[in-house]
Amino acid sequence: MRVILVGRAWIPIVLVLTISGWGTPSSASIARNLPSTDTVESGSGQTADREEIRLATRRGRIRHTVRRGETLSELANEYGVTVDEIRRWNDLESDLIRVGQELIIRTSSSRSNEQNQNSSGRNSQRRTGTSYIVERGDTLSRIAQRYGVTVSDLTAWNPGINPDRIREGQELSIRVPSGRHRSSSIGRPNRGRLSLGVQLEPGPGYRVRNPSRSWGTQDTIRLLTEVFDRMHRRYPDAPNVTVGDLSYQRGGRMRPHASHQSGRDVDIGYYLVNRSDQGGFARATPETLDVRLTWYLLKSFIDTGAVQYIFVDHELQAALYDYLRQRGATQQQLAEWFQYPRRNGGGGIIRHARGHDDHIHIRFRCSPMDNRCTN
Ligand SMILES: [Zn+2]
Hints:
Muramoyl-pentapeptide Carboxypeptidase, domain 2, 14% strand, globular
């Protein structure tokens, strides 16, 4: 699984960087653009990939290994080529492809003559960079995290900025490829789908209830594993929490949920007091909720800057709210975090929704690079 992902994640980034004229990226700058969830492979595997991709890039073509469920039209869409082209380059007699089959995809640099001839120009709008307007409360590391780049990338691309003092409204230039070749959350969480999804694998501190229902965007999976890593470093002895549903590999309707369709929703059990192991979701009350662990988890999600909403039952919000007030949280912080004491409406990232007394529901915002995604 991950071996394939490494390959898939590498190719497009290298190509886009090379094609769009940001110079030849060093190995280090390529490595920084890898989603961190993909970096678990051993160094030798990555070196091999790197070499292979360098060669492939020079030759102007990509070797794509077909994964389960992929279709020619989807691949064409993802690589910005046509079905006919893929068929021609691979001498395919029909549109049928099989898992494990290797397909040659030519990159646009090697196709430029062809393209000029038919003047389709459909690859000419490949985005080479983007800009980000700083919002209140942003830090450079938070912005870097959202884009999957590093703070030093940001300072390199924005030579004038003072990393310790960015201001609201300031425009930052960010050189990342557009959503193509990355996973994409298409449409809305309650009417959408997922392209090039990544599967959450179990890790320290959490269990995955159902692998076939545990797919998300690259950003969703990266953020989840980062938060669980942080949780595990801080509380290595905390019981495992259960991760329930995310999305199907290709998204779409997932009963019994309305949302969970586009790879940006995830259900997670609560930490409860006096429970060494949590086999699944268990109903929490203000008395049984482990507010310390649960808050650390929620705050870690909020700190990613990538969370749109967190659904938590009203009564449990009350328990967290009281805990934080006793520990000196300001009214402003509490209002930013919680809908409580309101029951409906109002602001606050953490909101009440029915059915969230046995699990937390996290909704991530659209990745800023994903132009097919609707918040
Ligand atoms: Zn949910």
